[in-house]
Amino acid sequence: MNGSGNVTTLDSIDTTITTDLRAARVARLAGGRDQIVLARRLVSATIGRDHPLHDDCVLLTSEIATNAVVHSRSGDGGVFTVTVWFSSDEVRVCVQDDGSAEPPCAGHSTATATNGRGLPLLDALADRWGIVREGGRNKVWFEMSLTTAPPAAMALLLQRSA
Predict the structure, then answer these.
(1) What is the per-residue pLDDT across 28-59, written as a single tens digit (0 to 9) for each?
(2) How far apart are the first and last CA of the chain?
(3) How many other C-beta atoms are found inside a 10 Å radius of the C-beta of residue 78?
(4) pLDDT in tens, 96-111
(5) Nearest to 94 by CA among 55, 67, 124
(6) Sign of CA dihedral 100, 103, 104, 105
(7) Which string of b and e fits 11-37 if b means at least 16 CB within 10 Å?
(8) Which residue in 23, 56, 77, 123 is deepest, having the highest Cβ count within 10 Å?
(9) Biggest distance spanned by C-alpha atoms of the chain
């Protein structure tokens, strides 16, 4: 639990919203490390474990949610918001935090370091990603699409639809 004693569960996540033919789910989570698992679960439950982009989307969500908790005021008793938009061939995840003194930047990790790989992972795995900084708050988002997915993911999709 974080300092406020509030733990958000998946049962308290906002209802599904539908806009421009894509569904969206939103969760406002307490800024504790124990809430990162709920961000991952939100993405998993929203797009489904059978979705070919599932594992990469859950991994990247974990990275940007962790950054929100570790590197922003969200981790000091604040909150962070996770929004997941999806369609059958596209996923977009956005994590908004309570802000930080400096904008997010890519870390430089060594081979044995246990951190500093979040933004480089976004760069390697996501089709598109970015950072929006407004009023000191950070929104880090990524998009993945089956139309640009690697051949292995496409093969998996074709296997499942056969």
Answers:
(1) 999 999 999 999 999 999 999 999 999 999 99
(2) 45
(3) 19
(4) 999 876 655 555 555 5
(5) 67
(6) negative
(7) eebeeeeeeeeeebbbbebbbbeebbe
(8) 56
(9) 51
CA angle 139, 17, 5 (to 5 degrees): 60
Q: Are 35 and 29 in contact (CB under 8 A)?
A: yes
Rounded to whole angstroms, how far apart are CA atoms 78 and 106? 23
**Secondary structure (3-state) at 12:** helix
Task: Decide if 68 contacts 82 (C-beta within 8 A).
Answer: no
User: Please, are residues 125 and 56 in contact by the beta-carbon 8 Å criterion?
Assistant: yes
